[in-house]
Design goal:
The protein has helices at residues 2-27, 31-51, 66-72, 77-87, 98-111, 143-146. The model is unreliable at 13-22 and 136-141 (pLDDT under 50). It is globular and about 75 Å long. The chain has one domain: Cytochrome Bc1 Complex, Chain D, domain 2 (Orthogonal Bundle). With 149 residues, it is mainly α. The longest helix has 26 residues, at 2-27. The chain binds heme C (HEC). Heme C is lined by residues 46-47, 49-51, 59-61, 63, 68, 71, 80, 83-84, 87-91, 96, 104, 108.
Length: 149
């Protein structure tokens, strides 16, 4: 009787173990999702006052309209990254860390439907091409939601 209970207990443990492993495999976090979330925070703290909560532009230009898209379409991530790192925020250029600049670029690209390079926007993926989704999103209703890769 005791022996039987023991095996049931072992079985239960094994079962749980398998469930945990499976869960882990399926929920493996995409590093890009975390980066986009971090970038969204930088954006709302540092950029939104000029570029708008929905990238629609306020004092600064829209970062989601067709002019923006046309300008960066077919370029590499490098171009927009350099612009942000060296010139933004306009009132305090150079105040972002490199990581903040990488994260906020990931967010802006993702909010525009641009697929991010594997592993996210990093110093070694800046050569990745920028391709916008076919349909322009003049009114970025909820970039944070759309931003999830
Ligand atoms: C004080 C206002 C201000 C803040 C804050 C600001 N920007 Fe800008 N930004 C501007 C203006 C004005 C321009 C257009 C003139 C220029 O490029 O110098 C611009 C241009 C840009 C461009 C180029 C747009 C294009 O069409 O080529 C990007 C990209 C950009 N900003 C991203 C950011 C990001 C990301 C942040 C936050 C880290 C940020 N900006 C913060 C005012 C601002």
């Amino acid at each position: 009787m005791m022996r039987r209970l023991k095996w049931i207990a072992v079985g239960a443990l094994l079962g749980l173990g398998t469930l945990t492993l499976t869960g882990r495999a399926e929920d493996a976090p995409d590093p890009r999702a975390a980066q986009v979330r971090a970038g969204a925070q930088v954006f709302s703290l540092v950029c939104a006052m000029c570029h708008g909560d929905r990238l629609e532009g306020v004092g600064g230009p829209s970062l989601s309209d067709s002019a923006f898209r046309a300008f960066y379409e077919g370029t590499t991530v490098h171009g927009i990254y350099n612009r942000v790192r060296d010139e933004m925020p306009l009132d305090r250029p150079g105040s972002l860390t490199d990581q903040e600049a990488l994260d906020v670029v990931a967010y802006v690209l993702r909010a525009n439907g641009v697929p991010l390079p594997d592993g996210g926007v990093r110093a070694d993926t800046l050569d990745a091409p920028v391709h916008f989704a076919a349909a322009p999103q003049e009114d970025a209703a909820n970039p944070a939601e759309r931003a999830a890769p």
